[in-house]
Amino acid sequence: MTAQAEPVAAPVRSVFPALGTTAVLLVADPAALGTARAVLVDELAAIDAACSRFRPDSELSRANAAAGSPVTVGPLFAEALDGALRAAALTDGAVDPTVGPSLVALGYGRTFASVRPEAVAPVQPVRARGWRGVEWDARTRRLRLPAGTALDLGATAKALAADRAASRAAHAAGCGVLVGLGGDLSIAGAVPEQGWQVRVADHHAAPPGVPGPVVTLRGGGLATSGTTVRAWRRGGRALHHIVDPATGDVPAPVWRTVSVAAASCLDANTASTAAIVLGERGAAWLAAAGLPARLVRTGGTVVTVSGWPTESDPR
Amino acid sequence: MPHTDRARDAGSARRRDRGLRRVKLTTVAIGVTAAAGSVALGAGYATALPGASSVGTPHPATAPPSRTSSDGSAPAAGGRTSPAPRSAPSTPLQPPTQAPAAAPTTQAPQPVHTTSGGS
């Protein structure tokens, strides 16, 4: 009698809207989906209450409204702000949380669903006030924004939420978990034998038939920043949600999408956003940081660095 | 015996004065000790209460002094030209322990689990 191995159940997934985008949860053990999903929902609610730019009752909105005066913030907002300021420091300000007024000036002052896709009025870019002006005492969680400054933690807060949710969900579920928020992915727990198979595309919600390389991930995070999604037009110009803090305008159109793998989704997102802002310098900057990355030029040419697999096998 | 009475009175007065001095010194010592203790305890509690510190004055967010760009060119304008920071450098961006690998092709293709893309 030959012993047969137990068949390994395929991961199961749950997909639902969250944070103005799509949340994806993959769980290696189907029986743990409910537990992991509850953790993810809880984490998303917490990050939204802390960091949403579009909720007047969020901690972020209250801090922005109090610019010029000190405020004390909660632990989760503090963690998100720490992450955003670290991102700014490590990118020389290419990723800067003080771009709130810049985004508003470009027309992204409300939830993206309510942003008019096209308007004739020209935009007047507003430079970011600069993250170095933010007075922040992490020990006492005391924050003072200079008057006229407003934070936007959008990119880094979403990535942080993916990392936190994946870690918590894997712990609660006791199995491998992948959390994706708008295409930014975080992996935690035991990895399935074949790893997590991830397609890379311009749009995180691209239908299955859209071509794109498939890579195997076994840990950490993967983030893709792009200029073709969450885009609109003003005064005859194509605009999008990634802002160069130095100009307050969209960066020069060099890369269409940048995908970066890192030890965490937060690091991956920081790097992918910075590469878009840095333009032609982006690929060399990622290579110097040793971060595996895939960059797609606006014309479609692909550049890979730091061990990202070549694309001999696009599916 | 008036002389004896005066001498006794003088001795009593000296003892009273010495007693008064000791009381005064003790009072001053207690006062100084209490004041110093109040300052020490106040400072300790102030630093222990988030947002109520008069000691831990918030400082501007700071950064590592080195540029992270790799081409050695001058920093861009705006927020990338600020003075040198005061705090310790942040932990650098960390590569993954294992880089992404090409999906297997020699065996049956694995189903794609999810997509990473712009949002």
Care to give the gist of this entry?
The complex is a heterodimer of chains A (315) and B (119). With 315 residues, chain A is of the alpha+beta class.
Based on the model shown, name its key terms.
heterodimer; A: 315 residues; alpha+beta; T-fold; 8-stranded antiparallel β-sheet; 3-stranded antiparallel β-sheet; 7 helices; 25% strand; globular; B: 119 residues; mainly alpha; 1 helix; 2 strands; 39% helix; rod-shaped
Textual characterization of the structure:
The complex is a heterodimer of chains A (315) and B (119). Chain A has 315 residues and is of the alpha+beta class. Chain A has one domain (28-305): ApbE-like domains (T-fold, Roll), CATH 3.10.520.10. Chain A is 29% helix and 25% strand. Chain A contains 7 helices and 16 strands. In chain A, strands 1-2-7-8-11-14-15-16 form an 8-stranded antiparallel sheet, covered by helices on one side. A 3-stranded antiparallel sheet of chain A has the order 3-6-5, with no helix packed on it. Chain A is globular. The termini of chain A are far apart. Chain B has a domain at 21-52. Chain B is rod-shaped and about 125 Å long. Chain B has 119 residues and is mostly helical. Chain B contains 1 helix and 2 strands; from the N terminus they run αββ. The termini of chain B are far apart. The chains are: A alpha+beta (315), B mainly alpha (119). Chains A and B meet through β2, β3, α3, β5 and β6 of A and β1 and β2 of B.
